[in-house]
Specification:
Oligomer: single chain
Number of strands: 0
Distance between the termini: 52 Å
């Protein structure tokens, strides 16, 4: 066939159109840039509850049993506990671990309160701050030291080891990870269970702060000296995250069959027995019981992606969450709520996670968007899903828990 002038002309036009498309088409290879990290600005607390604490007139025997089980004898439940009472099974799953990290862990009481208060400060949770200050004083922290917790690890006068623990809390909050130098200093004095308990204390208090912030739990009345010092400048200054996924675990799992997660935490049986929040999300939550398992996995995968937690990601893409089998658009999850192709409601689910991760609270706009389909129970369950798996991500990342053989790895994320 002989090429004519028209053939050549049309070919050149086609090439020109293809080049234009290549220049202007968005490139979406692998994961997309992560949302802004937490800590860029002070979290803004809600001034009224989104879900009011359960009135005493509505307490059933189930509610009273939880109060007797999880609170000291004669103690009156505050706003946070009475909000959780809307879902008694959630009380079981949250308070078991919370009571462990604040009362039963291997750490000294002073260290528990140091970590809990720093985490409350980072997340802007005056609810948790006011709850923990009386316990901090009992543990020997002075009013000056309590204020210095808000000022952070660079405040003058900290013991070097305690300053390092505050840096650990800051790095987990900001980077979802702890760099080698901070971990090495912890490990120089702490055994494996001490290190686990320190990381899980930060992770668990973080999850409760996110839950309380987003549900709009209001702080209980407290003396001025017990309130979070808002006159302290909000500053989170940490180095860059050294790596996304450690090549070797920091805590070597117990030998034997089974997944790496339980074999790692079973190194510390008391901690392992207290860690049961994920059971609520995956077995009890109404997201699963009302045919919204796809929504649940979107929430989990997005918080795992934001936290760059490979183990969590691999388990919920695969054998635990089954997102691939549900035809969840896995690659699109990495691109975020503004990627083309999302159903508007699912885009708002991802936006819900991004705001909770970045701002430590969800905006009214996004909350109200989900309320178009979710009742109060589903809103609680959506919030604890994201908050619980934020906790899981932090705990897995600090310990370097390795994904199980044959499971999907995190997609690559472009450098920022």
């Amino acid at each position: 066939m002989r090429l004519t002038f028209q053939h050549v002309f049309r070919s050149r036009q086609l090439i020109r159109v293809c080049l234009i498309l290549l220049v202007f088409a968005p490139v979406q290879l692998g994961g997309q840039p992560l949302p802004d990290r937490p800590g860029g600005s002070r979290p803004v607390a809600l001034t009224k509850p989104r879900i009011a604490p359960l009135p005493e007139a509505q307490w059933t025997d189930d509610h009273k049993q939880r109060i007797a089980k999880f609170l000291p004898a004669g103690a009156r439940p505050g706003n946070s506990f009475r909000t959780l009472l809307h879902v008694p099974e959630l009380v079981d799953r949250t308070m078991t671990l919370y009571n462990y990290v604040t009362e039963g862990s291997s750490l000294a009481p002073r260290i528990r309160e140091l970590l809990a208060l720093r985490t409350a400060w980072l997340h802007g949770s005056d609810v948790v701050w006011r709850e923990r200050v009386p316990f901090a004083r009992k543990a020997g922290l002075t009013d000056d030291e309590i204020r210095k917790i808000a000022q952070g690890p660079s405040a003058a006068g900290w013991d070097a080891f305690e300053a390092n623990l505050l840096r650990m809390a800051d790095q987990l909050f900001r980077n979802s990870f702890v760099n080698d130098s901070v971990h090495a200093m912890m490990a120089s004095r702490y055994d494996t269970c001490n290190v686990m308990d320190a990381g899980v204390t930060v992770a668990d208090v973080a999850s409760l702060a996110l839950l309380y912030n987003t549900l709009g739990v209001q702080p209980d009345q407290a003396p001025a000296a017990d309130r979070m010092p808002m006159d302290v400048a909000y500053r989170v200054d940490v180095p860059a995250r050294e790596t996304i996924t450690l090549k070797e675990p920091r805590a070597v799992p117990l030998p034997g069959p089974g997944a790496n997660n339980p074999r790692t935490f079973n190194l510390c049986p008391k901690l392992a027995a207290a860690r049961n929040g994920s059971g609520y999300v995956n077995q009890i939550s109404m997201l699963g019981k009302t045919g919204r398992a796809r929504h649940r996995e979107l929430l989990i995968l997005r918080i795992g992606w934001n936290s760059q937690s490979e183990y969590e990601w691999s388990e919920h893409v695969g054998p635990v969450g089954g997102a691939r089998k549900m035809d969840v658009p896995i690659e699109r999850v990495t691109m975020g709520p503004d990627a083309p192709g999302w159903d508007p409601y699912e885009a708002n689910l991802l936006r819900f996670v991004d705001e909770l991760y970045r701002d430590s609270v969800v905006s009214d706009r996004t909350w109200n968007a989900l309320k178009q389909q979710y009742d109060d129970r589903l809103m609680i369950d959506a919030t604890i899903t994201a908050a619980n798996y934020r906790m899981v991500s932090l705990a897995l990342n600090i310990l370097g828990v390795q994904s199980n053989p044959g499971e999907e790895k995190l997609p690559a994320v472009p450098s920022r």
